[in-house]
Structures are given as structure tokens and as C-alpha cells.
Automatic annotation (TrEMBL):
Ranges where the SH3b domain occurs: 64-128
Pfam family for this entry, one: SH3_3
Signal peptide per UniProt: 1-25
Protein name: SH3 domain-containing protein
Keywords: Signal
Keyword Signal on entry: yes
Lineage start: Bacteria, Bacillati, Actinomycetota, Actinomycetes, Micromonosporales
Superkingdom in the source lineage: Bacteria
Length: 134
């Protein structure tokens, strides 16, 4: 089947939207260049249909604590720890930052911006479950 790039991009946008995920220019134009284990809420800029969503993160099963950092890097100042059973309000987007090797094999540059105890911070995307409501 011969599809133009524009038609293929529209198909990706439709399928992603039908599955309830926010659609972005980044994942519509390059659907395979995004966070490695991102949930249904993966995106960079939500569409109008996704604006009512609130995203959350909590430590993955088996992770004893997740460092909350001031910047999206392991060299960023640690401003707290998130323990199992805790959750934080999060951006419905992943941010490319410094690479880390925690919570999986290989390395990943993907971080999630969160609000933790009134402060803005970042957590390693591989170390948390990323969910949304709305």
C-alpha cells in the first residue's frame, strides 16, 4: 500500500487520538522517536482534547524510592525522594535531559516534570508509572 507521508502522519494522529493519547507535532511527525516505555499519556504538547487531563507519577513496583531532582539530570540537586505508595502531579509530557541508567537496562534521557511538595522537579521516566485521569 502506497501512502504519502502526510497521510501516514494523519493516520498516526488518528490512531493515537483514538487510543486516548495526547497528540503532538513530535509524535505525529516522528512516532518512533519518543520515550521508551511511555504510557498512554506520552506527548510533548497536548491537543485540545487532552487539556482536561491530569497526569500523575508513582514509583514502579520494585523501586524502593525515586529521586526528585531540580533539573532533568542525575547531576541536578535532589530535592526529595518519592516512596512506594506516594504519587505526584506530573506533566503529561516527557522531557529530554541527561542520560541515566536506573530502573532498566541501558540508558535513557527521558524525564518527567512533576510538582513535589510544592516544588517543581523531575523524575526518571523509567522509574515511575505514568498515569492520567480526565
Amino acid at each position: 500500500m502506497n501512502r504519502s507521508p502526510r497521510r501516514a502522519a494523519l493516520l498516526v494522529v488518528f490512531l493515537v487520538a483514538a487510543l486516548g493519547m495526547p497528540v503532538t507535532a513530535a509524535n505525529a511527525a516522528a512516532p518512533y522517536d519518543r520515550p521508551d516505555t511511555a504510557p498512554a499519556a506520552v506527548a510533548a504538547i497536548p491537543t485540545a482534547g487532552a487539556l482536561a487531563r491530569t497526569c500523575y507519577v508513582s514509583p514502579k513496583k520494585g523501586v524502593s524510592a525515586v529521586a526528585v531532582r531540580r533539573t532533568a539530570s542525575t547531576s541536578g540537586t535532589r530535592i526529595g525522594l518519592m516512596y512506594p505508595g506516594q504519587r505526584a502531579t506530573a506533566a503529561c509530557s516527557a522531557t529530554r535531559g541527561g542520560s541515566y541508567s536506573a530502573c532498566g537496562s541501558g540508558s535513557s534521557p527521558w524525564w518527567i516534570k512533576i510538582t513535589w511538595k510544592g516544588a517543581r522537579g523531575y523524575v526518571a521516566q523509567r522509574c515511575v508509572n505514568w498515569t492520567y485521569s480526565g
